[in-house]
Amino acid sequence: MNFANLFSNMMGNETNTQQEQSNWIKCPKCLALMYYKEVEAKCNVCPKCNNHFRINAKKREEFLCDEGSFVEHDATLAPIDPLKFIDKKSYKKRLDEAKAKTGKTSSVVGGSCTINGVEAEVIIFDFSFMGGSLGSVEGEKIVRAINRAIEKKCGLIIVSASGGARMQESTFSLLQMSKTSAALNRLHLQGLPFISVLTDPTMGGVSASFAMLGDIIIAEPGALIGFAGQRVIKQTVGVDLPEGFQRSEFLLEHGLIDMIVDRNDMKETIADLLTLFLKDNPRVDNAS
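The structure corresponding to this sequence follows.
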């Protein structure tokens, strides 16, 4: 099942759509109606129930990176269609539509920045581009960011928001799981930190590879995290599943992630963790 397309078609980027149509936003969790500036002031978090709205890569960059510090890399990398894949539409047409919608050529934005003054390489998934699906270009951007982190002796942050591997690229997409994991091992051997941030949703091949390989794995409150969907798992195992078993709170309780951090506190938390990890790294000290 292609979760990337499923999530993109059924759920979309609701916050942005509502704001374009009106100055008022209705929270899907508590159903409260709020002025959009009230929500934006809290990093697109509902002030009534703390529901974390989905946000695009640009907003994520603004919340996480120091103002004016983000420098994007590999912005011109764009996927091709090696399989000439066609489902309800051709892959080429899906790519053209996603580019027109987001202004991006892939579901990943990679760049260098500082976070509270701490240098870092950052990868941010944009769910509005084909459900944040992982393809060959996305994998290449992640590996290049890892290589830059190794070269600069700094930490790596990956903010995941994805329905999983991109079925239109078949094996080319699945290969990115091992490719990125191998690159992260090189980062690990250098003693450099990888902080994985899981947002709603982080599913499929992304959750089955680099997203769960962080030295520290952070999730936003209420984030949907897993491999297969609940219905598919229930059909496979034939038993009723615990309530909310794919939400970040359940995963924290069962030791699959390290912490849940509110979006308003994310920047400070990541900066503190990077400082802690890099403080006693002899490779970093020698490089400086």
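Strands lie at 24-26, 33-35, 71-73, 108-115, 118-125, 155-162, 194-202, 216-219, 259-260.
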